[in-house]
Structure formats: structure tokens, C-alpha cells
Amino acid sequence: MVLKIFFPQCCNTADSGLLVGHWIPGHNSAVVLAVIHYPFIPGQVKKYLSELQSQTQVDLTVLGSWSMPKEGQEGMDSFLKDLSTIFPQKCWLQLSREIGKRGFICQVVQNNGKLLQDQEQKNGDESSEGDKIILIHYDQRKVMLSQLHPVQDVGQKSDIEPSELRLVFQTVAQSQPLFFLDKYDDGPLKLTHWQSEGREASIIAELLKQASVPVCIFLTWLLSLWHWFCSFRILHLHPVLFISSKLSTCVQSGYRTVHFKTVFSPKKAATHMEFMRKANIFVSFLLDIALGLLLISWLYRENRISKLADTLVPVADRVAKELQELLEWLMGAPAGLKMNRALDQVLGRFFLYHIHLWSSYIHLMSPFIERILWYVGLSACLGLTFALSVLSDIVALLTFHIYCFYVYGARLYCLKIYGLSSLWRLFRGKKWNVLRQRVDSCSYDLDQLFIGTLLFTILLFLLPTTALYYLVFTLLRLVVVLFQGVIHLSVDFINSFALFAIGQRICRPYRLAGEQPVAGGLCCVYCMNGCVSKLSMLPT
């Protein structure tokens, strides 16, 4: 017979006491979860285990005794062996270790008093003859937090029988109330498990969990008020919806509302994936706020807002002058091209007038630019993404004249192309059938062909002038779109940056561990960080 004992590394130096754990059903294996230190009252131990069984739905029991005698405890071994009569078991484990030695003495006593095994285990080595005991050390903290084998729902049934290691991982995961610490005093029983060393941190973590519930409820109430405000009928009119869909600030506000609704929900995450999603959103939000505060601290130092406002108007004048020179170049003979002078002059003066209007608008707003920038800078309190979204909207407003140039040029160019395509079909005796959405044959008289020829000639000779203006303004618009695209890419990167998952990967990779099936009916568990100190090929 081969008996496997899964023993936590955190209990290697525990004081003498009782081994609390669970026998794996269907397998000759036992999982040690904690050590109850001496002194204790057996009645209190039984009451404590019965309460834990009702909470965890795991058959927790006293597996045996753990002996690591100190000075003045010479008779501790015999006392712990006699406890098998108070806590009757089919097999009573007796683990002992001497101070300063790495080896363990493992003994298994059956209920009839027969000694099944008495073999000293050195560094997890197993005996070579007779019955064997395999002592497997595992890191309880990593196994508890790894989510390597998630616990299945009670109603969920699987045709495949779970492997031994899966049952071990599920046993540790389901025994979470055993490791729960929310007070400094242990009470009548003192235990050693993976949370024993970080008692203060565990208490703080549990208090923060309890305090987060009312905070989440309050923030959920604030979100409900925001949804109530957004449900006003006037905000759902088509012009308002169209404008809000074009403003990056409104789009970012919608994203943040959805994120807040997900993170601050009082419901606990049902799956590990949902927990990781909430944690990633929350950490990205904290990073966003931290970067926004850094931006504010930089902007409001050394009078940078005033310097930025003083620089904005000269830059706008410089851009207007460059555009004016570009239009004057187009109104001449750009790159030696022969343009239609009449159309060239009309388009050039039309666009020059728009530049004049834009420059007048900038100079009219110049006394208020500093105050506007001062209040706009405060939007960084909501996060760097809000500040970048506001910057994108400001760029869109400042380059509105370039957008108008692009729209005018694109519309005029599309009309020319549409007219030329229609007249080209006229030359070939074709026409576009609107009802059937296809090109049909058609006979034209002489007057129609003559007028069509004149119009085709006029549009064809005017096309180079229109195409040149369209090309130049498309390139200008492309520069603005690329700049806004970089801003939007930065915003999306901050919103979706999985900083929490990356931190888990670097600091706690066992939280992201997984399993892979192996052919031949065997299952091998890969733990990147050593959750189990001895890996075995176990039959499924």
C-alpha cells in the first residue's frame, strides 16, 4: 500500500499538536491543512471542526498528531499518541521531527493498533520495500491562490472522474474559512497555516473587505443618480446624441460609467476570470488617477498655464499664415501644373475667407484662453484619460477650419466624379436603373449626346483643379486625424492596460497557473512556481 501525505511547508516548524485535514475519497491520500497547537481541549477541537464542516462542506477531521518537542516536553510524543482514542480514525498519522534536522518520522497506526509503517523519510524520499509513505510538501499559500483547479459548482456534474491532484487543490480551496483571520486573538485554539505568519496583514485585508461593501453601495447609488440624469429625454434627441458621439469626453465618460458599474458592484465575483477583469479595471483606474494628478502637479507649477496660453495664439497665427501661403501657392502654378484659373481663384478666395474667420475667432477668444485652460486642466483630477479626451476635443475645435476644407473639397470632388461617371455611361448608350439597381441599355437623341459631350468636357478639364485641392486638404486632415488617433490610442491603452495581471505574472505567477492534459490517460500538473515540491504522474 502506498500512502500519500500532502503536508504544508508552513507547518514544518509548527509547535506540537494535532493534524487537521481531509482524507481524499477513493484515494489512499491525506491532505494536512493546519496544526492545532498544544494545549487544547478535545471537546473544543471537535466543536470547532463541526462548525468548519458546516461552512466548508468538507469532511475536516483530525488526521493524527504532529510532534516537534522542545525543552521540557519530553513526554509529548506519548501524550499525542494516546489522543487516537479520543479522535478515532481508520488510520492515525504520527508525524514527528527533531529540531535542527530535515528528516521526518512518519508512522501510520491502524484502528486495531497495528503499526503499518515506521520509516524515516529524508527530503521526501520513499522507502523501497513493503508499504510506502510518500510525504509531499506543498506551498499552501500558492495552492490556495493559484486557481489551478477551480472548484466546480455543486449542480455541475462531470463524466470524467477528477484526478487526485485536482481533489487536493479543491480541498485546499474549499477550506478557506479555516484560514480566515479577522481578529488578533486566536481564541481557545491556536493554529498554524499559511495565514499565521501574516496575521496583521490578514486582519487588515479582512477589515478592508468588510469596509468595501458600504463604499460600493454608496458608489452604486451615485452611479444610479448619474444614470437617472442621463435618462432625461432632452439628452436622447438626435442632435444631442450625434454631438455626444463625436466628443471624446462624452465617450470616455460612458466608458468610465460602465467600468464603475462593473467594479463597484456589491456582488462578489463568481469566477476567477471575472475577478481578474474587475481587478484590471480597478488598477487601471488608479493608474489613470495617479497620472492625472501628476499632470496637474506639472501644469500648475511655475505658471505653466499662462505660458501655454501665451504660446497658443502665436502658434495659431503661425498655422493660419502657413495655410494662407499654401492657398496662395495653389492659386498660382503649383509644381508647374496648369490649373483652371477661374475655378482656382474662386476656390482659393473661398478658403482664404475661412482662414480669416478662423483667425478672427482665435483673437476674439485670446483674453479668455488662459482661464479656459486653467479650468480644463482640472479635468485631469478625473484621470489622465479625461485630460487626453478634452485635449482631443480642443484639437478638433481648433482645426475645425481644416475639417471644413476637407469636407468642401471632398464633396466637390465626389460630385465631379459622379457626374463624369454618369456622362461616361451616356457615351456608351447606358444608364443607371434606380429601381433595379443596375446598368441598362438606353438610346439617346442627338441633343442629349451633344449636351452630354459639352458637360463631360467641362467637368473633365475642371477635375485636376478640384482633385489638387482635395488631395492637399485630405493630407492636412490626415495629419490632424493621426494626431487624434495617437491620443485615442493612449486613452484606450490606459483603459485596457492589464496592469494587475502583469503584476500577478511577475510577483505571483501561481495565480495564473493552468493545467494541460497529457496523452495516454495521464494528467501532469505544471506549476511554474513550485506549488508542489514533488510532481508525479498520477492516473486519472
Report on this model:
With 540 residues, the protein is an alpha+beta fold. The protein is 53% helix and 14% strand. It contains 15 helices and 14 strands. β12 and β13 (522-524) form a beta hairpin. The model is unreliable at 118-128, 514-530 and 532-540 (pLDDT under 50).
SSE arrangement:
Layout: E1 2-8, E2 17-24, E3 29-37, H1 42-56, E4 61-67, H2 76-82, E5 91-96, E6 104-110, E7 115-121, E8 132-138, H3 140-145, H4 164-174, E9 191-192, H5 199-230, H6 238-246, H7 248-263, H8 272-299, H9 304-330, H10 341-365, H11 369-377, H12 384-398, H13 400-427, E10 430-433, E11 438-441, H14 446-496, H15 499-507, E12 516-518, E13 522-524, E14 538-539
Parallel strand pairs: 1-3, 1-8, 4-5
Antiparallel strand pairs: 2-3, 2-4, 3-9, 5-6, 6-7, 10-11, 12-13, 13-14
Helix pairs in contact: 5-7, 7-8, 7-12, 8-12, 9-10, 9-11, 12-14, 13-14
